[in-house]
Amino acid sequence: MNALENADRFTLIRHGDADAWIETVAAEMARNLNDDIATDGRARLLLSGGNTPAEVYRALAELDVQWDRVEVSLVDERWLSPKDSDSNAWLVRQHLLKRAEGAHFEPILWVGKPLPECVHDANLQARQARAPSLAVLGMGNDGHTASLFPGSRDLARALESTLPYAALDATGCPGANQWPLRITLTPHGLRRCQRRLLLLRGKQKLEVLKQALESNNAQLYPILNAIDLAGPKLRIHWCD
Question: Is residue 6 one of the residues assigned to a domain?
């Protein structure tokens, strides 16, 4: 059986074009948030950065969601000022928060605090907050998700952590580019999320996913740590 057809491990939804992909993903996210607002009065959303989800965030902001009942935070962050245009916080503000009036943003990095203190505060914040309604993930061509980079000196520690967030030094990892120092959600933190989405674009990403599934090596392909978690299956939305 083709590894991509293993419905026991995940749900793969293929979309015919980018517009359908954007519209469907945004609608699913809005539905997830509204379900939790209706049940619990509030919802919590964890978002990734990168170019892939930006259009989805813009579409989501236009949908009917009680944004004043939504807390937004991050899956991971580069060791940058939140005002830096290369930070994930900046991307989320530009593409979602400027349009989603009333949504409350909780950063995981604070200017003037050293990295260990930011990780401590992010963990304290996460443990005091409600369980996330939804986490939105991406995947790099090296098989990383969040900031769990293959070959990172801190990868094993982050994968084994019993805290929601960990610091990670990805020096020497090509996928980290010029931002090796990161704060990242751990598999433990991801396990607390009630729903998980993986957003992919392009044939190369689908091939990397296939290689990861065939390898069954979660150190070489950290995306497997999101796929093989207990609980609801990861939903993967792909278009070319």
Answer: no
